[in-house]
């Protein structure tokens, strides 16, 4: 324990953060290996997209929770870009499409009713708990930790670059137009994570605050990992689908009692 | 959906609540069937006791969150008993032992270091997220929903009555003195759940509020179920132990990368 106590500089901090990503980011999770390798069936991919929708839907809320406690107008102005990216800009269609709309298009392309997805009824409770934990973390911890918990985006471009060709090659029910969300994140994520990394390098100015930054990233990796564990358990390993959660057509009859 | 919309009376509400318990309480979970049937190994039982400690440790905090928002001194006075039961009364040893101490004795009897358990480092992230969701629910929802979310205790005596002889018969490493927590809950839980049931029968005075009570109990069943899903996934089905979580001696080398 306390593996990241005593970091003496911004350089040591960044090295530790990259090490955490290399060890704990959810690209390593067996469910993602199955997803990207074309080894899931359509119902399992639907379950993933549906549950990940809940994560997408809460991202702008957690970003708003950060704005809501931030006294620095400059930081608010930078951070606002994230909400614009996910929700779209004011002005309806003129404001441009947001990431949540793109995610719903992916869900629809996979055969899910967007009204069902947006109604959030079939989400796995464990996914809901993990995502809500992220929102509470951002609202309750220090501003530095709230910023640091976004740093999984440092590792996102790699997973998207693997996911797009993997899913297109692996599934005849996935088309290029459904990959829109990921293509755009390839440029958005590096911009956001670059800003957040600069921020924590500058503002974490003691070994204690650098350790808190590391722990915030570990927490966030846990949030992502727990979502995949829940999907893997319910929809791949046969652990049973919790009552009320989405049952793919090809798994009817396999829900938990 | 909306299965519990339109409940017209306290009798219909109570019937619905008992139905929810019969369908969703965690006595039905496969992990509990394994635990009570003597079919887990010592490391798996340790993992259960360790993770359940986190739940035990947060119960008085969620009860305090209820007190913290309750303007009725009478309700506070009744509800305070729950904190006394779990933490013990003021006055140290003179105040009597609390449930958390009893749970630590169970952990110690199973071969876990109580300092390690109390340090909360090995807890599965999914268990942490589920338990914290319960605490946030009690702090944020209506007082009626906060009270209602305790109603899983209606079904607790049954599970304890099954667990005590099941674990004593099934495991040579479990002794009578380790079952102290459950023996005492056999009388505490019916008193608490009787009070909470009377409370929701009286205060849920519309179909809408009765539905909210049902949904609060469903939420709480999800909280308990998700904890067992996480244990089942990591320690039984081979889904991988998340980085940082407890690794039983007999599972060394099986942790996730």
Structural account:
2 copies of one chain form a homodimer. The first copy, chain A, has 257 residues and is mostly helical. The first copy, chain A, has a single domain (10-248), classed as Heme oxygenase-like (Heme Oxygenase, Chain A, Up-down Bundle). In chain A, 66% of the residues lie in helices and 0% in strands. Chain A has helices at residues 10-24, 30-36, 42-67, 73-87, 99-109, 114-119, 125-140, 143-148, 156-170, 180-203, 207-235. Chain A is globular. The model of chain A has no long low-confidence stretch (mean pLDDT 94). The A-B interface holds A 1, 23-24, 28-30, 121, 125-126, 128-130, 132-133, 136, 218, 221-223, 225-226, 229-230, 232-234, 237-240, 242-244, 256-257 and B 1, 23-24, 28-30, 121, 125-126, 128-130, 132-133, 136, 218, 221-223, 225-226, 229-230, 232-234, 237-240, 242-244, 256-257. Chains A, B: Its EC number is 1.3.3.11. Chains A, B: Pfam families: TENA_THI-4.
Gyration radius of chain A (Cα, Å) is 18 Å
Structurally, how many domains make up the residues of chain A? 1
CATH topology of chain A, anyone?
Answer: Heme Oxygenase, Chain A
Of all chain pairs, the largest interface belongs to: A-B, 35 and 35 residues
Mean pLDDT over all positions of chain A: 94
């Amino acid at each position: 324990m306390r593996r990241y106590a005593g970091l003496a500089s911004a350089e040591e901090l960044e090295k530790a953060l990259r090490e955490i990503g290399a060890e704990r980011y959810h690209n390593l999770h067996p469910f993602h290996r199955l997803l990207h390798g074309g080894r899931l069936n359509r119902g399992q991919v639907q379950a993933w997209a549906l549950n990940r929708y809940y994560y997408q839907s809460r991202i702008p809320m957690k970003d708003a929770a950060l704005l809501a406690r931030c006294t620095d107008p400059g930081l608010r102005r930078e951070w606002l870009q994230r909400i614009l990216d996910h929700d779209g800009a004011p002005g309806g269609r003129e404001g441009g499409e947001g990431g949540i709309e793109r995610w719903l298009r992916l869900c629809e392309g996979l055969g899910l009713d967007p009204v069902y997805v947006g109604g959030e009824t079939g989400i796995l409770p464990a996914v809901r708990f993990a995502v809500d934990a992220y929102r509470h973390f951002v609202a309750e911890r220090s501003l530095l930790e709230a910023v640091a918990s976004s740093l999984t985006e440092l590792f996102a471009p790699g997973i998207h670059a693997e996911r797009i060709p993997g899913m297109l090659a692996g599934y005849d029910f996935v088309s290029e137009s459904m990959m829109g969300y990921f293509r755009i994140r390839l440029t958005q994520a590096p911009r956001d994570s670059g800003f957040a990394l600069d921020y924590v390098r500058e503002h974490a100015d003691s070994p204690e605050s650098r350790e808190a930054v590391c722990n915030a990233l570990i927490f966030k990796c846990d949030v992502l990992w727990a979502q995949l564990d829940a999907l893997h358990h319910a929809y791949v390993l046969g652990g049973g689908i919790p009552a009320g959660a989405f049952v793919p057509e090809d798994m009817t009859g396999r829900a938990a009692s």
